[in-house]
Amino acid sequence: MASDDTLTSIRTRFACRAFSDRPVPPEVLRTIAEAGLAAPSAINRQPWRIIAISRPDVLATWDHAGLATLRSIDPAGYERVQSRGGTLLYHSPAVIVVAQERLDSPYPPAMDVGIVASHITLAARSLGVDSVIAAMPGFALAGAEGPALRTLLGIPDGFDFGISILLGYAQEPGQPHPPDPAKVIEVA
Fold first, then answer.
1. pTM score, whole prediction
2. Among 39, 91, 94, 110, which residue has the fewest nearby CB atoms (within 10 Å)?
3. Sheet holding 159-168: strands in order across?
């Protein structure tokens, strides 16, 4: 049985898109990152690397590169981002990248990466840290600055950007999306 704390974390987590400038303490960021290590994976291959980033200069470089690339490959998407604050990282003070190993395997690492992201976001919520799972920051790696950015972000050779989890403290409390019980199908 899940504890009340676990269910509270699940029910109260929301997608934060407006972070305050309050930093995530290093020990809290490390605890959140390590929660991802507990995620299961197909045949226990653990085809990921978990990269915790809290250096403001790295985050600013990444955000700038991502916006430039998004503008060139998806102008409408770029305009949408501009209308929502003009940043891919929502001014988050910390980001965890889950890099996925390039595998020639019937077990796709993307599913395992998603499970890691879920562990990370729920651990964050349980520690009072807000989050949003974001794929769009990965656009930065498709642009001209991609190779240098891979190095800056610490993505190892043989791995690709899988997903990012933006972390911090919300400027204002948010609400989770309302669950729709009709989406549960029971076969008893």
1. 0.92
2. 110
3. 48-53, 94-101, 159-168, 130-134
Q: What tens digit of pLDDT does each residue of 95-146 get?
A: 999 999 998 777 778 899 999 999 999 999 999 999 999 999 998 998 888 9
Q: What is the pLDDT of residues 51-105, one digit of tens each?
A: 999 999 999 999 999 999 999 999 999 999 999 888 999 999 999 999 999 987 7
- Give bridge partners of residue 96 from the DSSP assignment: 52, 165
Which one, of 118, 99, 114, 124, lies nearest residue 49 by Cα?
A: 99
- Domains defined for the chain, CATH in brackets: 4-171 (3.40.109.10)
Q: Tell me the two tokens of residue 100.
A: 């996925």
67: amino acid identity, one letter: L
- Residue 13, SS3 per DSSP: coil
